[in-house]
Specification:
Helix 3 runs parallel beside helix 4. The chain is an alpha/beta fold. It contains eleven helices and 17 strands. A seven-stranded parallel beta sheet has the order 3-2-1-4-5-8-9, with helices on both faces. Strands 13-12-11-15-16-17 form a six-stranded parallel beta sheet, covered by helices on one side. The protein has a two-stranded antiparallel sheet with strand order 6-7. The chain is 32% helix and 19% strand.
Length: 354
């Protein structure tokens, strides 16, 4: 394989869009870049192929294949997962032999075990983390102490990462090796970690977003609160119906999260997209007037991409949750959204609905 000065790792459509933005922001030519895609299922592969139409790359490599069980479905048992992980690690090792002289590696998600595995072994390579939404918030505000190394990648306690630990691939990354290319601003508390903000300038220009017209719709971005047992069905439904009434002058559309069960909220007009909402919006002829959520991670991306859409975040608190705990990441997101409030980013307590 030809040696490339820059290598980009991406798994999701949003990571790929961020790779385009980084390629533009850092002034990287097409013939200097290799794009490595980590998709393992047909849905994600098809999504990535659609996004790939935005820009040319010198070489594109789909690193992994989808493993099928005998009945034709994606393998889900522990044995098949183990075989897949081992095979994927072998492919990563083969790739490493060809990219050791790479100057810069752009990592779609440093917590992905495969990307973490590769980045740990690119010893003399500058590493730039492409933030895909709330990763920077989730990571930087409580992983910014005196530790010398970044703790991430294969350290969370799920089956895939336990296999990585058994195989001896759980290494740390020196913080001085990292730069974050992020949609967030002024969140880096550890001065050893470099930072550059992503404003989506390339994507906004390619899609000519400022010329798009608006409909009379408002979209509410769903979240898997019911599936995770964080809210009761009746409680969640009542909150949504109250918000729908608050925006009674608009057509209220509930955008179903992919982790939610179908027809879980039958009394609402619901849509389910094949793509992340940000990419779906890029391809809509008419944009919704407002995007509403309980401080979703997508809010910051939509805020920066679409100046004509007003982003509204309703604050959830621990006292509302069935489990009594909202989660630190979502709490930190709302704090950040309050800090950057603007005409097209407003934040409201639930008390305004009473």
């Amino acid at each position: 394989m030809k040696q490339f000065d820059n290598i980009f790792f991406a798994l999701t459509p949003i990571q790929l869009i961020n790779a385009y933005e980084a390629k533009h922001a850092y002034g990287i030519n097409d013939n200097e870049s290799l794009l490595v895609l980590f998709a393992e299922n047909s849905i994600t592969i098809n999504q990535l192929r659609s996004v790939l139409k935005l820009q040319k790359w010198n070489k594109i490599l789909f690193l992994f294949d989808e493993i099928k069980s005998k009945d034709g479905s994606s393998g889900s048992n522990f044995f098949l997962k183990t075989i897949r992980i081992i095979r994927n690690i072998i492919r990563c090792q083969r790739l490493l032999r060809n990219i050791k002289k790479t100057s810069v590696a752009f990592l779609g998600n440093i917590d992905n075990p495969y990307m973490h595995y590769l980045s740990c072994r690119l010893i003399n390579t500058k590493k730039i983390v492409l933030d895909e939404g709330n990763n920077t918030v989730r990571r930087m505000r409580w992983n910014s102490g005196s530790e010398e190394y970044y703790i991430g990648g294969p350290f969370s306690n799920n089956k895939k990462n336990r296999i990585f630990r058994i195989l001896g691939h759980n290494k740390y990354i020196p913080k001085t090796d990292l730069t974050f290319f992020s949609v967030f601003e002024n969140l880096i508390q550890d001065q050893r970690v470099q930072y550059r903000q992503n404003f989506f300038n390339y994507t906004r220009r390619v899609f000519d977003l400022d010329t798009k017209e608006s409909s009379n719709e408002v979209w509410f971005l769903g979240a898997p609160f019911l599936a995770l047992g964080m809210l009761e069905t009746k409680q969640y439904f009542n909150l949504l119906k109250t918000i729908e009434g608050y925006y009674s002058n608009y057509q209220f559309i509930y955008i179903q999260h992919r982790a939610e069960r179908e027809k879980e909220l039958p009394a609402l007009e619901t849509r389910l997209f094949d793509y992340p909402v940000e990419y779906q919006l890029l391809n809509e002829i008419l944009l919704p007037k407002k995007i509403i959520s309980f401080h979703s991670g997508a809010s910051i991306n939509i805020f920066l991409l679409f100046k004509k859409i007003q982003v509204v975040n309703f604050e959830l608190t621990d006292s509302v949750m069935k489990s009594g705990k909202l989660g630190q990441g979502r709490i930190e997101l709302y704090k950040y959204y309050k800090e950057i409030e603007a005409d097209n980013m407003i934040n409201l307590p639930l008390s305004v609905l009473i």
